Structures are given as structure tokens and as C-alpha cells.
Amino acid sequence: MALKTIMLRRSIDLKKKQLEELRAKDKDFETREKELETAIGEAEDEEAQKAVSEEVEKFDTEKKAHEEAVNTLNAEIEGLEKDLTDLERKAPDPEKKTERSNKMHIKTNVRSLDMSVRAFDALTMEERNMILGDNQVKEFLGQLRSMKGQSRAITGGELTIPVVMLDLIAENMYRYSKLLRRVRVRNVSGEARQTIAGTVPEAVWTEMCAAINELTFAFNQITLDGYKVAGFVPVCNSLLEDNDVNLASWIVEMLAEAIGLAEDKAILYGKGAANRMPLGIVTRLAQQSKPADYPANAPAWVDLHTSNIQQIASNKTGAEFWAALQVAAGNTFTRYSRGNQFWAMNSKTYALLKSKAITFTASGDVVANVYGILPIVSGDIEVLEFMPDGDIVGGYGDLYLFVQRAGMSIEASREAQFIQDNTVFRGKARADGAPVIPGAFVAININGSDVTTSMDFAADTANDANLDGISGLTLSPAFDAATTAYTATMTAAAAVAATPAQAAANVALSYNGKNIVNGETLTPVTGTKPLTITVKNGNAVKVYTVTITKS
Asked: Would you state the pLDDT for residue 95?
């Protein structure tokens, strides 16, 4: 199976090289075509016209053969890539085997470690030697050190973290992420489809010897993708000169903390596929209409924004408060759950719950019964400081599916903080998630306020292609980064400049079909002509258009 995969990849590479060579001839055909157009216009006698006609016929034959060859190669490449995909889906994943093998050797319970202890440092000498002795790890750490002296951008080549370290990083993430241990986590390599029960029929009572009724079961699926979660951290170059233990320990902590915290926020407030992130619990509960891209084979969409988003008046205390909380939390749908409930809140809300649970015995002793487990409602409490005051989000965590893609990676740049003598490392992972049964969750505010249903995430500045403004023109409507179409009137030449929101973005201007320099004088042409402003940043491209009329 592995040899077939290698052969297919080799065949694909060779055919892509052939395709590139053919594509290189496209400009030759364009040049010849223009020359023939000129020759046709210059042919004045019959003999010259005949010669040009023969050349045109020869050109058409060669161009047709060229295009057929290109199309044939494209079809062959598509077929080979499909065969490769099918083969890889069927083939066992050797990395998964390695991962399982490594798990058997790492016996230390990383998840239970105190936060003051680094995960790698807590391993036994045998476990550390096993990781550091791996050839892939040795090569990986060596490449990290080599990046220290390289002068290149952070977009340089990425290093895939060796499989032997991924398991330790994943285990360590459970210390920094409060919710990964509460939801259902699956590690997948391709598109993830989770089959879930739909309508479960009721069995039929009948006579002892009567025929048995057929029961019709319906099943639904949700499909999840894999969106990138990433961040960068500056590291003193001295650390890169330390031993392998220190360097490996730092990598494990950096990636686990950065990615784990981001995933917690996404599980609760993620904005979904349109924003290239998981769909959060609260985000789904707040939906008031079925999204246009809602999958046809997913469970029937249900409006939950009133039933599963609740508020409790701030003046309720004692038994009255806890009774109201019980009723609000009771809206969780438990039909398919096999797990326990969890309740997420910040420390101020947690303290408020404790205060509402305080009572006094006959002898005057204080009794408070909220310590890690929510009374009356039941369920484990997780404190997340990014949550708004008074908000409680929870339910049956096993009905939220979170998928993690194999293959974390890391990149480095010396240029970003050269003056500080730091090397900047960027860690990346891919994940997605969504509530399988949204009705299994509720969001409650105990201060009598509306539940916060939308939350800002760290701005994706590396892919921000917005403009900050356009100077030199009076725009209609007034400039707004989200608006891409404007009109303007010019009476005379003026300097026109487009300022990107991110300094690293590339801005290109074109007026009346001709490129112009950003910030220089634009001379209006009589009539109405378009000014096109194209902004590129990272993988994002955004086009603004100003229709200019010369008065």
C-alpha cells in the first residue's frame, strides 16, 4: 500500500512538471497570435495573404493540439489525485500506530499536574530519554536551533512536530483548557462526520404470539472541517542554546497554553464556518433562524434562543434563587447524553453563587455548599475568566463534538524581534467543533441581564485586507471598511491615497484600466470611470471600487 502511494505521488509530480512546461508555452502562442494579427493587416497582395493564411492554419492546428494536451494532463492529474486520496483513506495511518506505541511508554498523568510544574519536567527519566532519543525529535530540535541564526520572515518553511511529542502536547493542553475534558474530543485526519440518532421510535406492545412491528430509526450527521488556530511567542535566543530538555519543555508548554486557551473560547463562543472557527455553544443557542448553509443531513434545526437562553432577576436570593436556577438549567435536553453536566463561569460569578448559597445553622455556623459542584442542578464548575459577569453556560458536554486534526507545526522568524535578541516561534493546529444536540445546553444570566451571545476573538491581523481610509476624494457614502462600493466627483487632479488597516498589506490602484501609484496625483478623465483599489494581506484579498465622475 505504501509503495503504491509513493508511485502515485511520483506520477502526479511528473505530470505536474509536464503541465508547467506546457503552460510555459502559453505566452509563445499569445505572441504568435498577435504577430499573425499584424501580418493579416499588412498582407496587401494575394501571395502574401496566402502565406499568412497557411501560417494561421498551422498556428490553429498547433494551438488546438497544445490545449488538448493541457486538458488531457489536467484530467490525468485529477484522476491520479483521486486515486491517491482513496488509497490514503483506506490505508492505515503509520503515525497513529507510532502514537499508540508512544502512549504506552508515557505513563505520567500529565493532566493532574499542578500548574506550577512543567509537563516535560514531570516525566520520568526513562520517558524523557525516550522522547529525546527519538531521531525525529533530535532532527526537529536541531532545526529549531538552526532557525536562530537565519534571517527570514515568519512565513518561512514550517516544521511538523514529531509524533512522539504530539501526545505529550495534547495531554498538556488539558491543563490549560478547561473544556477539552468536558466535551467529546476526536482526533481525525480527514473530514469528520459524526453520525447521531435522529427520531427514536417507541416500541409497540402487542399480543404474545402476534407479529412484531417494524421500527423505523432515523439517523443524522454533522460534518466538521478543520480551521487553523495559531499564535506566535518571542523566545530569548539564550534558551535556544540550552540543552534539549529545556527546549523541548518550553515547546510543550507554549503550544499547550496558547492553543488550549483559544479552544476553550471557541467551544463556547466560536462564530462558526463563516469565520473559519468552531461553532460555539452560545452562538448556536442564539441563532433565531436556520443558517443558509445548514447541512441537509444534519438534525432538524430548532430555534432555542428563548427556551435555552434564560435570565434570573438579580434580587432573587436563597431558595427562590436556587429554584429559578434549577428551572432554567432544566431546559437541557438529555435524551442522547451519556455523560455529566458542566457549568462554565468566571470567578466573580462563581463567588456570587457561593454568596447565594450561604446559610446559618441554629448555632450560627456558616454553611456554603458551592465548591466545585453546582448544588441543586448538579454538575462540575469550570472557571473561565474571559466569560462575562453573571453568565453561566453549561449542559451535557459529551454532546459537543470537538475534532482535532493530526499534525501540529511550528515556524520561526529571527527578523520579527531581531533588536530584542529574540527568535519568534509560531505554533499551529487545526480543529473544529459544534454542538451535536444544541438543546443539551443552556446559557443563563443570574444578574437579570441579557446573556452575552457574541464575543470578540483575537483579530486576524495577518489576513486583514481592510482599508483604514481613502484620502483625496469625497466619498459617498462616507467611508466604512466594510463597504466596498463608493461614488465620488472630481473637478481637478488630486493626490489619492488608500491606507490599509494593516501596515504589511499590499495596496494596488487602477484608474480607468491603468495602474496608478498609491498616494500620487490622479487626473480625472471626462465622464464616469472606475477607480479600483485591491488590498492583499496574507491569504485575504479585498477590492474597493470608487466610481469617479469628472464634473
From this structure: 44
Lowest-confidence region among 40-49, 62-71, 139-148, 518-527: 139-148
Of these ranges, 29-33, 277-281, 359-363, 377-381, the one predicted with the greatest mean pLDDT is: 277-281
Range in 122-136, 378-392, 526-540 with the lowest mean pLDDT: 122-136
CA distance 253 to 416: 22
Q: Are 8 and 87 in contact (CB under 8 A)?
A: yes
Confidence of residue 375 (pLDDT cuts 50, 70, 90): low
The grid cell for 488 is 465620488
Query: Any residues with CB less than 8 A from the CB of 447 and at least 6 apart, and which?
Result: 311, 314, 389, 390
**44 and 145 inside one domain:** no
Give yes or no: residues 122 and 7 share one domain.
Answer: no
- Write b or e for each residue in 6-42: b if 16 or more Cβ atoms lie within 10 A of its Cβ, otherwise e: eebeeebeebeeebeebeeeeeeeeebeeebeeeeee
Same domain, 377 and 342: yes
Question: Positive or negative CA dihedral for 495, 500, 501, 504?
Answer: negative
Beta bridge partners of 486: 546
pLDDT, tens digit, 9 for 90 and up, residues 146-201: 655 444 343 444 556 676 676 677 777 777 788 888 888 776 554 444 444 444 45
Q: Report the 3 state secondary structure along 28-59.
A: HHHHHHHHHHHHHHHCCCHHHHHHHHHHHHHH
Cell numbers 526537529 correspond to what residue? 140
Q: Which of 458, 491, 525 is the last residue of a domain?
A: 458
- Buried b vs exposed e over 484-495: b needs ≥16 C-beta within 10 Å? eebebebeeeee
Q: In this structure, are 279 and 410 located in the same domain?
A: yes
User: Domain of 50?
Assistant: 2-90
The domain that holds 425 is classified in CATH as 3.90.1690
Q: Are residues 122 and 138 in the same domain?
A: yes
Boundary-marking domain end, from 72, 90, 108: 90
Q: Cα-flanking dihedrals φ and ψ of residue 445, to 5°?
A: -110, 125
E-strand ranges in 137-226 read 159-160, 184-188, 192-197, 219-224
Give, for 139, the enclosing helix (H) or strand (E): helix 135-147
488 and 393 inside one domain? no
- Strands of the 341-345 sheet, one edge to the other: 309-311, 441-445, 391-396, 341-345, 380-383
Confidence at 288, pLDDT banded by 50, 70, 90: very high
- Of the pLDDT bands very low, low, confident and very high (cuts 50, 70, 90), residue 104 is very low
Rounded Cα distance, 481 and 459, in Å: 15
Report which of 283, 240, 182, 193 is spatially closest to residue 425, judged by C-alpha positions. 240
Q: Are residues 216 and 353 in the same domain?
A: yes
Domain count, the chain: 3
pLDDT band at residue 547 under the 50/70/90 scheme: very high
Same domain, 342 and 480: no
For residue 498, the domain's CATH number is: 2.60.40
* Residues 6+ positions from 2 with CB-CB distance below 8 Å: 91
CA dist., res. 204 & res. 534, Å (int) = 66
